Amino acid sequence: MQFIDSHTHLWLKGAITQEMRENSARVGYEIPVLEKEKVIKEMDEANLEYVVIIAYPMRKLWGAKEDFPVRMIQECKDYPDRFSVVGGVEVNQLTLEETRNWLETQYSAGVSGFKLHPPHMWVKPNDYREEESGLKQLELLYQFSQDHGLPVIIHTGTSFFLPARNKYGDPIYLDDVSVDFPKLKIVMAHLGRPNWVDTAFQLLRIRRNVMGDLSSIPPKRLLEYFPRLGEVEEKVVYGSDSGGPGVKGLKTHLEEFLRTGLQDSSKVKIAYENPKRVFRTLER
C-alpha cells in the first residue's frame, strides 16, 4: 500500500538561497537543507507515492519571495511523479498587478495550490472583506484559485518562529472565506492546534468546501485532539510537516500515524485517497 504526505517543508538544496540560510538565527530555526536523492530514498522506504512540498514566500522569516516555489519546481523536475509543489503570494507585500503576475507565473510553472500563512504574513484570512482591511490582493488569490480549481492551504494554530504573530492563527476567519468563495477548495492546515481545535473541527463539520490536514499534530495525540476524527474522514488529509521543528521525518511520522487507533479504512482515505483528489504532481 502506498501513501501520500500532503504537507511537508522539504528544503531541497537546489532551491535554497544563501540569504535563506543566513536568516536562520533571527527566525530561531536552522533550515535542514536536504539532498534530493536522500529524500527520494526515504520516500521509497516509507512507501510514499509522492509528497507535497509547501514552498510559500516568507519575507519575515527566511527572506524567501514569490520565486521560491518556481525554484522548488525546477529542483523537483527530475522526479515529476514524486513531488507536488504548493506556492503562494505574500498579498500584503505586493501590488494587485504583482499579485496577479506571480499567481499566473507559479500556475504556469506547475504549482498544485497556494499557501497562506497568516501568523507569518501578518494577515487575517478574511482581510479581503471591506469591514476588515479591504485587501484586494487577497481576494484575487482566492478568486484565481477558485477559477483554476486549485486548493488554498491556510495555516491555522500557532507558530513558534520568532517573527510569528499568533493572533492571526484562529481558524474562525476561514468561515468568511468559505461563505464568500463556495467553490474554493480550502485546506485548513494543522486544524487549529493546539488552541483552536474545537473551532477547526466544527468548521470541518458545517462547511462543505473546508478540509483539514493533520500536519504537525503528533500522531500519538491525534485522537486526543480529535476523538471524532472518523466522522470527517472524507474531509481530512494526512501530512507530516516534515522539515519543520520536532518532526521525526517522513517515514517515522507516517509509521506513527498508521499505528493510531483509527480504522484501517479511515487511514487509507486520509493518507491516500483524499490527498490524491486534492494535490496533483508535477507530472500531470
Would you kindly provide a written description of the structure presented here, covering whatever features stand out?
The protein is α/β, with parallel strands linked by helices and 284 residues long. It has a single domain, classed as TIM Barrel, CATH 3.20.20.140. Helix 3 runs parallel beside helix 11 and helix 5 runs parallel beside helix 7.
Given as residue ranges, the uncertain stretches (5+ residues, pLDDT < 50) are: none
Order of helices and strands: EHHHEHEHEHHEHEHEHEHH
* Order of adjacent strands in the largest pleated sheet: 4-5-6-7-8
Indicate the overall shape.
globular
Helix/strand/pairing class, anyone?
A: alpha/beta
The Rg value, from CA coordinates, equals 17 Å
Helix content: 25-40%
Mean pLDDT: 97
Classify the beta-strand content into a percent band.
Answer: 5-15%
Instruction: Tell me what the CATH architecture is.
Output: Alpha-Beta Barrel
> How many helices in DSSP terms?
12
Sheet having the most strands: 5 strands, parallel
